[in-house]
Amino acid sequence: MPHPTVATSRRLEDVRYDIRGPLSRRAHELEAAGKPILRLNIGNPGLFGFRVPQHLRDAIATALPKSEAYCHQQGLLEAREAVAAQHRRNGAEARPEHVFIGNGVSELIDLSLRALLDAGDEVLVPAPDYPLWTAATRLNGGVPLHYPCPPERAHLPDPAEIEAMVTPRTRALVIINPNNPTGAVYPRELLAALVDVARRHRLVLLCDEIYDSVLYDGAAFTPLAPLAGETPCISYGGLSKVHLACGYRVGWLSVTGHEHRVHDLVRALDLLASLRLCSNVTAQWAIRPALEGPNEIGALTRPGGRLHAARAAVVDAVERSEFLRMVAPDGALYAFPGVDPERLPGFDDAAFALDLLEHEQIILVPGSSFNIAARNHFRLTLLPEPAVLADALARIERELARIARNAARRVA
Ligand SMILES: Cc1ncc(COP(=O)(O)O)c(C=O)c1O
C-alpha cells in the first residue's frame, strides 16, 4: 500500500519564491550531470568573486571570542547604535531602542508583517516586487494588493493610483528603493507623495532600502524615514548587498514615527525577536565598521568600476538587440529587460527561461515571478564580469532568434 504523503500547511498554497524554485532545481540537475550553468538568477556577490571588505572580516575575527553568548533580542547595542547613527546622519529621528538586528532583512520582513497583520489585512506591494514581500504578507494571513510600476513609467509608482487602492483593511505600504528587480531609484518628490498617502490613510510605511548605496550614473538615493517624520515607518538595510556579505546573514530595521503611534509596534517586534532569542551574534560585529568605514561599493558602481561596466555591457546589448527593450537600472544589482511584444507575440517568460536553461545553460528569473501579470520580462543579475554578461546577452539573443524562427515556421 502506498504511503500517503505528509500533509503540509495550507498557508503555503499561495506562497511562491521562484528565484530558488523549480527552474533552480533543474539547474542543479544539469550541473550534477556535468553541464556548467551560468547563474544569473541570484544577486549573491560572493558567487562572482566579490570579497567582503577586509575591515569587516577583521572585526569579526577580533570579536569572535565575544560571540559565544546570546545577545539582546534586538541585537548588539553597539551595532544598533551604529544603525541609528546612520539614520540620524540622514536626518531621521532614529534611536537604538527602535532598531532590531536580524538574520538578514529576510527574517525582519517576516517578523514585521507578523507583528502588524491580522487575517485579511491588506498590504500595498509594488509590482514587480522582491517576491518575499508578497510571500511573507500571505504567510502572515495578509492580502497583498499589487500597485503597478510599469516600464512605460520608468518603473515608478503613481501615488494617486495607490491611493485609489486603499480600503479600510489596508495597513501598510511597501516601498523598495532602489528597486529589485527593476533598478528604479525613486525621486524625492515621489517619495514625499507616497508618505502623504500613508499619512492620510494611517498606513505604516515599510521601506526596503537594502540597495541604498548601489547607484549608477549619478542617481541619488533619498532615505524615506526623514521624509516620513511622525508617520510610522520601518526602514530596512543590511550587509548583504552594499557590503557584499550575503553569507553573514545580517540585516536591520529601524522604526521611526510618532512615539505614541509606534509604541505597540516596537513592543510586538520585541516579543517576536525574543521568541527567536537573538540573531547570529558573530556577524553583528561587522555592522559598526561597515557603517562607519569606507564605502567600497562606490568604487564598483562608479565609471571604471566592475558593476558600472557590467551594467553598461547589459545596456549596450539590449540597445543592439532585435527583441529586447529596457529602462536602464539606476540602482541595485539587476537588469529587467522586456521582450518587444510586436517582435515576439505570445512570448512566455517561464517557457523561455526553461528553454534558455536547457539550450544555453543560463539561468535567469522570469518576470512573472515578481508578481506582475505581463509575461514578457526577465531579471538577470549584474554581478558577473562584464565580458561574461556580454556573452550571456549574445546567447539570450540567440535563443530569442530561435523562438522567432520557430514562430515564423508555424505561421508558414
Ligand atoms: C529588495 C530585497 N530585500 C531583501 C532582501 C533580503 O536580503 P537579506 O536577507 O540577505 O538581508 C533582498 C535579497 O536579495 C532583496 O533584494
Automatic annotation (TrEMBL):
Record domain Aminotransferase class I/classII large: where: 36-396
Record bears the keyword Transferase: yes
Cofactor: pyridoxal 5'-phosphate
Keyword Transferase: yes
Key words, A-Z: Aminotransferase, Pyridoxal phosphate, Transferase
PROSITE patterns found in the cross-reference section: AA_TRANSFER_CLASS_1 (PS00105)
Gene3D superfamilies hit by this protein: Aspartate Aminotransferase, domain 1, Type I PLP-dependent aspartate aminotransferase-like (Major domain)
Class of the enzyme per the UniProt entry, highest EC level: transferase
The EC number(s) this enzyme carries: 2.6.1.-
Taxonomy, superkingdom: Bacteria
Gene Ontology molecular function, alphabetical: pyridoxal phosphate binding; transaminase activity
UniProt protein name: Aminotransferase
